[in-house]
């Protein structure tokens, strides 16, 4: 049992409780939850999603804090006869199977939800069904077959015609989703296999790192000419062996958790020390003000899309400070503003 945390918040849920059967079946259950879930809430999820389908557990292997687990599981174990076993920080490999499943799910979510990150909760049951339908290399059987003695029917490859357009459209969407899911989980398994032969950098909380910029959508006119790396950013939290939460600018509004493969340690040279201190503000009409260097792009705003906002880059500041402004925020950069409107044929 383990948690995948810090996903985009959906219906007050931002985490996945991952349950893996450590017996021969190797089946999985993915349960959406909140990372602040306590032991009582975790126990309720076990009853709701595990007990009603498979009965009592023989034992529980968890990397959660011993105090957290003991709070409810010790009493639950005494009453129900569950033998509790907690893996320690020094023996985290005890739950290696769950960690591998975690990596598989994280890669799947990365591929499938990159553009619409809030859809992760709706797609979990597809990932669970597909995983449990795949033949495991060790047993040469699927988890479904070993658990139930048969293979549940997936979506058919050909559907009967329906006179209801919405049903026809939905079945086609589900079929496509199932095919993509199977392919993505195969890719996930391959990526995990490749990663097992690679050595990744490890970072600590408080360190500064560069973030690879090729997959970031920050409003640059040309991706080819955009910076290869953004930052440096401080590591706010170490979430796992290969995942880190970064302290990003609030205006980015993207999920702040990244794989270590996208991060590079920021190093200062003692002789030629890089200076990322913010420059002093200009004094305009007795008030401190940033100086706009360039207007990058624009977007319509408002209910009728009649209002316009402009993404600006501040002089002597890196791209992490880029900001969307209303026209009123450009009153001291009128020349840039008017030139931009003429160039893009804006009224």
UniProtKB/TrEMBL annotation:
Q: List keywords of the entry alphabetically.
A: RNA-binding
Which PROSITE patterns does this entry report, sorted A to Z? Answer: CHROMO_2 (PS50013), INTEGRASE (PS50994)
The Integrase catalytic domain extends over 1-151
Tree of life domain? Eukaryota
Give a GO cellular-component term: nucleus
Query: Which Pfam family is one of those matched by this entry?
Result: Chromo
Chain segments annotated as coiled-coil in the UniProt record: none
- The UniProt record lists the Chromo domain at 290-347
Name the GO terms of the biological process aspect.
chromatin remodeling; DNA integration
Q: Name one GO molecular function term.
A: RNA binding
Q: What is this protein called?
A: Reverse transcriptase-rnase h-integrase
Tell me what organism the protein belongs to: Moniliophthora roreri
Specify the taxonomic lineage: Eukaryota, Fungi, Dikarya, Basidiomycota, Agaricomycotina
């Amino acid at each position: 049992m383990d948690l995948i945390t810090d996903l985009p918040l959906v219906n007050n849920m931002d985490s996945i409780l991952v349950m893996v059967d450590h017996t021969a079946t190797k089946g999985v259950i993915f349960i959406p939850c909140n990372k602040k879930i306590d032991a009582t809430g975790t126990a309720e999820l076990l009853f709701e999603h595990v007990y009603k389908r498979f009965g009592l557990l023989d034992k529980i292997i968890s990397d959660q804090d011993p105090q957290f687990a003991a709070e409810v599981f010790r009493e639950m174990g005494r009453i129900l006869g569950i033998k509790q076993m907690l893996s320690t920080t020094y023996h985290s490999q005890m739950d290696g199977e769950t960690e591998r499943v975690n990596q598989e799910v994280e890669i799947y979510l990365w591929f499938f939800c990159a553009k619409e990150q809030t859809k992760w909760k709706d797609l979990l049951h597809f990932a669970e069904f597909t995983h449990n339908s795949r033949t495991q290399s060790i047993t040469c059987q699927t988890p479904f077959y070993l658990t139930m003695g048969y293979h549940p029917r997936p979506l058919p490859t050909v559907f009967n015609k329906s006179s209801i357009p919405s049903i026809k459209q939905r079945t086609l969407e589900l079929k496509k989703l199932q095919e993509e899911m199977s392919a993505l989980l195969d890719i996930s398994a391959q990526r995990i296999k490749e990663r097992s032969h690679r050595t990744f950098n490890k970072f600590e909380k408080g360190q500064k790192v560069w973030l690879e910029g090729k997959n970031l959508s920050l409003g640059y006119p040309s991706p080819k000419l955009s910076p290869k790396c953004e930052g440096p950013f401080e590591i706010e939290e170490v979430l796992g062996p290969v995942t880190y939460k970064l302290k990003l600018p609030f205006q980015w509004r993207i999920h702040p958790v990244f794989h270590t493969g996208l991060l590079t340690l920021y190093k200062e040279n003692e002789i030629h020390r890089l200076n990322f201190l913010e420059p002093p503000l200009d004094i305009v009409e007795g008030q401190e003000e940033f100086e706009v260097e360039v207007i990058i792009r624009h977007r319509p705003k408002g209910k009728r899309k009649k209002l316009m906002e402009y993404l600006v880059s501040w002089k002597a500041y890196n791209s992490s400070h880029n900001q969307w402004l209303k026209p009123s925020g450009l009153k001291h950069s009128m020349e840039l503003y008017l030139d931009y409107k003429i160039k893009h044929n804006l009224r």
